[in-house]
Every structure is written in structure tokens, then in C-alpha cells.
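A sample copied in:

***
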Amino acid sequence: MPGVASLRAAQYYAHPRNAFWPIMGALFGAGPEKSYDERTAILLARGIAVWDVVKLCTRRGSLDSAIVDSTVVTNDFDSLLGEFPSIRRIVFNGAKAETSFVRHVAPSVRDVAVRRLPSTSPAHASLSFDRKLDAWRTIAQPRPAISGSYGRDEGHQENDDEHDRVDRRNRNPRP
């Protein structure tokens, strides 16, 4: 779910300290120095779309930890994946998006690889920008082959190990 700054601006990752657009700038030339329309066009040209798992929820402020789980309504991934059958991978920007997907969406979706990357939020300060950028480099790699429903995007063990260490510190178990 977008934070307060993003909702006000009607743009994903509008908070000035969020690392998402600087990372997209480093990877694809879609950095914050470009207009929002230019950034999203660059990502779409690379086959990357930005969409939230959570469509509606109750939350005070911008922190994912403040989302009231019983109020979560997810976006319609079945329709999205049906309309765009070329989607083969879903990448989560942090643990809350992945947790919401697993809890509310995963049981009903077609075969698609998934991968959680470190949150680009300024609230996720346990990783430096450079470490986040290194982890996010995986989205610039070729799409994985699918070997079953809701399959983990394999092949990045080094990053997975780091994410697992972050998860243990934050007490967020991986599915």
C-alpha cells in the first residue's frame, strides 16, 4: 500500500528518501531526475510494471507495520495475470507485500515465480543503499523458468542468504 506521500502525489514511491527510484535510475536510467511519466515509461519498456498487492486497508501513517491485517483488500491478480500472460515473475518490495500476497493471493494464482527484495523504504535502514541496489539487480536479469505454482525465483542464493539474515533480525519468517 503506498505511503502518505505517494497517495498525495498519486505516484508510487514519492517519498523523497525512498530508494526505489534511485535504484531504478541506477539499473535502467529511470531515476528521480526524470518526470514520473518518463520513469514509468522506461520501466514498462523494460517489461517492468509497478503495482501494489494491497488495494485497500486501514493504516495510520505510512508504515507497513501499521496496516490492520483484517482490513486488507488485495488487488485482482487473477485478472492481471489473465490479461497479461507474459508476466512470469512478481517481485515484492519488502516483507509486508510478500506476506500479504502469500496470505491473500497466492492460493488462487497461476504459475508465477516470486521473489522478495529488501524494502526500498527509508524505514528499512538496516541495509545500505548499495546493498539494496545489489539485491535489486536481480530484476534486470532474464526471467526465470517456472516449475510450479507460486515458485520461488531461484538462482540468487547469496541474496537469499542475506534476506534470510534480515528476516531473522526482523522476525519475519519466509514462506
Notes: Confidence is low (pLDDT under 50) at residues 145-175.
